[in-house]
Design goal:
heterodimer, A: alpha/beta, Rossmann fold, B: 383 residues, Dna Ligase, domain 1, D-amino Acid Aminotransferase, Chain A, domain 1
Chain lengths: 288, 383
């Protein structure tokens, strides 16, 4: 088993005929992911990825024709919010948005709308979800991961690859790797993913990769104390980041005294989470 | 993107929020003319994008046009937190009876917009939030319904606003939420909102921060960007589409991804070095961007060594290696460079570096790379 995506995931790619969409669609198919359809308005009836993926004008048509149950969004930022809402309206229950640069006000509206619906949104501005040897829904390089008992959840992209790589090179495999995205407002937080890992029989321990800004890590620490029985190892990026400086991610801004790396690390340590000082230390802290 | 005070207030005025009358001056003479046109006492206020101008002497009152000219002469050319003042706002001086805080911002923990008010305006609102959180009233705004009358009233009551001002306050609060919404703001704040001696509510100071990701739908705001306060390095970084923050240490960093860039800085510190900068070249990086990034970091005075850390996913290591070679061709000799390349097309990338003949240290893991770059910077390891 795994969480969110596996061999039964029937994936639809929104923005499949774009440069990014088509490239990653090919990569996901090569990994063994069941990509059943693509959507690009105005290109319905064509085929993408060397004739492997039928293209539809709308998500509704694609879902009716192929039974897609998950969608990944590569649509450029100005249209990505619309693509997310379209997928949800068509009854897709898992939406992964890779697109970077989605305006915060669009996410305010989407999160208020989704609070009333049964839909899981991962991202935006995230690397997606990888369940090793089952399905790759996103842009995480599949070859760096191996199947195993460790669940990974992260706000970052390449830093997640770094940790997966460090675990794999020590022979420690992963159940599912989830990048939840680094923006100020994302569809799914650490807490929800921790809950899924807690309930997933194939996950024995969890690695959480956080960074400065916001209080998602602090809320995760509280949830771990209350609800998580599986061992958790954490890494928090940004110990050296000075307060008040913007470090790239829209999410990585320190607000006043809250959201610093030290505060997050203290919150984790207070509830028994082992915190690595650098990414290469994560494998050493796993329970063998 | 943060707007200057006068820019923020012009948006307020468009949405019905009363502001003092005045104008912007870049010379003492212009300041004098504005004061003359206004008649009466004026406030002369430095326009800079950092806080602390009041303490630095960047706000002065002037009773006559001659005094306004004098005040502007003193303020123009002064520095507030190392930023030179290039413009002053000259506006009618207000008779202040009470100062209030009113702001709208994004609360990321709930993913919604909130409006906050406090009777303790004019001061550092973050300090009030920390020391006396009960003094701040906060309402969550439904994006589909907007700010309701009852929410505005609740804010007015908590800050103890007399009944006769409730109507005017409602209109200011609505105007502020309109500004927040209409311009894709991350923050729209009036601090202080004052009750004048004449019994009017007026926005005395304003701060609006626009979401950079939404500037595509606000071309008129994108033109307002004030680049005069950027350092040459920051301007170079923005032109090359690099996310860059100068920190002042000895070890330059070039990394793909913001999280990995911060982690790379952390590892350098862990092994005893001091990172000189944060630099994220972004995803799907091209050779030119890598070259521009290395150019920027290697050209920074005080840099003893540079660590290039790339984990290729979308980014291809051969493309990165070509960028490294281009940069080294342009700037030779330069500070020692430690390269760590992993991921897509890793072996091709390493070959390109080897064939270039430049002397580089190539490391396999991030920890090893950090240890090496610190040793090189300290002079403990020869290239």
């Amino acid at each position: 088993m795994a969480i969110l995506v596996d061999q039964d995931t029937r994936l639809l790619v929104q923005g499949v005929t774009g440069h990014e969409g088509e490239f990653h669609c090919g990569q996901m198919i090569a990994y063994g992911t069941q990509v059943v359809a693509g959507v690009t308005p105005g290109k319905g009836g064509q085929w993408a990825c060397d004739g492997q993926v039928p293209v539809f004008d709308t998500v509704e048509e694609a879902r009716a024709a192929t039974g897609a149950n998950a969608s990944i969004v590569y649509v450029p930022a100005p249209s990505a919010p619309d693509a997310i809402l379209e997928a949800a309206a068509a009854g897709i229950s898992l939406i992964v948005c890779i697109t970077e640069g989605v305006p915060v006000h669009d996410m305010i509206r989407i999160s208020a709308h989704f609070a009333q619906k049964q839909v899981i949104l991962i991202g935006p501005n995230c690397p997606g979800i990888l369940s090793p040897s089952k399905a790759n829904v996103g842009i995480i390089p599949g070859h760096i991961a191996i199947p195993g008992p460790v669940g990974i959840v992260s706000r970052s992209g390449t830093l997640t690859y770094e940790v997966i790589h460090a675990l794999t090179s020590r022979g420690i495999g992963q159940s599912t790797c989830v990048g939840i995205g680094g923006d100020p407002i994302v569809g799914t937080s650490f807490v929800e993913i921790l809950e899924m890992f807690e309930e997933d029989p194939s996950t024995e321990q969890v690695v959480l990769i956080g960074e400065i800004g916001g209080n998602d890590e602090e809320r995760a620490a509280q949830f771990i104390a209350e609800r998580v029985t599986k061992p958790v190892v954490a890494f928090v990026a940004g110990r050296t980041a000075p307060p008040g400086k913007r470090m790239g991610h829209a999410g990585a801004i320190i607000e006043g005294d809250s959201g610093t790396a030290m505060e997050k690390i203290a919150a984790f340590e207070a509830v028994g989470v082992r915190v690595a000082e650098h990414p290469g230390q994560v494998p050493d802290l796993m329970i063998h | 993107m943060r707007l200057q005070e006068y820019q923020s207030k012009s948006l307020f005025a468009k949405h019905g929020i009363p502001i003092p009358q005045g104008g912007v001056a870049a010379t003492p003479k212009e300041a004098r003319r504005i004061a003359q046109d206004r008649g009466g006492a004026v406030a002369v206020k430095a326009q800079v994008l950092v806080g602390g101008r009041g303490k630095a002497g960047g706000v002065r009152l002037a009773d006559t046009p001659a005094e306004a000219e004098e005040a502007a002469a003193a303020i123009l050319g002064m520095q507030v937190r190392e930023l030179p003042v290039r413009q002053v706002l000259v506006e009618e001086a207000m008779n202040i009876r009470q100062e209030i805080y009113l702001g709208t911002a994004v609360d990321r923990s709930i993913g919604q917009a909130v409006m906050m008010a406090s009777a303790e305006g004019g001061v550092d609102i973050e300090r009030v939030a920390r020391d006396n959180p009960k003094a701040i009233k906060r309402v969550v705004i439904d994006p589909f319904l907007g700010l309701s009358n009852s929410q505005a009233l609740a804010l007015a009551k908590v800050i103890g606003l007399p009944d006769e001002y409730h109507h005017a306050f409602d209109s200011v609060a609505r105007g502020l939420y309109e500004v927040f919404l209409a311009y894709d703001a991350l923050l729209a704040e009036i601090n202080p909102l004052v009750i004048t001696g004449e019994g009017e509510l007026m926005a005395l100071d304003g701060k609006v921060v626009i979401d950079d990701n939404a500037l595509f739908r606000h071309p008129e705001l994108a033109q307002m960007r004030d680049t005069s306060e950027e350092t040459p390095a920051e301007r170079e970084a923005r032109a090359a589409d690099l996310s860059y923050v100068y920190l002042g240490g000895e070890i330059g960093c070039v990394v793909n991804g913001a999280g990995l860039a911060m982690a790379t800085m952390d590892v350098i510190k862990f092994f005893g070095g001091v990172p000189a900068n944060f630099l994220d070249v972004g995803g799907g990086t091209r050779a030119e961007q890598v070259a521009a990034a290395l150019h920027l970091v290697l050209g920074t005075p005080g840099t003893e060594a540079v660590l290039l850390n790339i984990f290729g996913g979308i980014t291809r290591c051969d493309e990165v290696a070509r960028g490294v070679v281009t940069a080294l061709e342009e700037i030779d000799p330069c500070a020692p460079l430690v390269v760590r390349l992993v991921g897509t097309n890793e072996s091709r990338g390493r070959e390109i570096l080897k064939d270039s003949g430049y002397r580089l240290i190539v490391a396999d893991t991030l920890a090893e790379a950090a240890r090496q770059v610190v040793a090189v910077a300290e002079g403990e390891l020869e290239m």
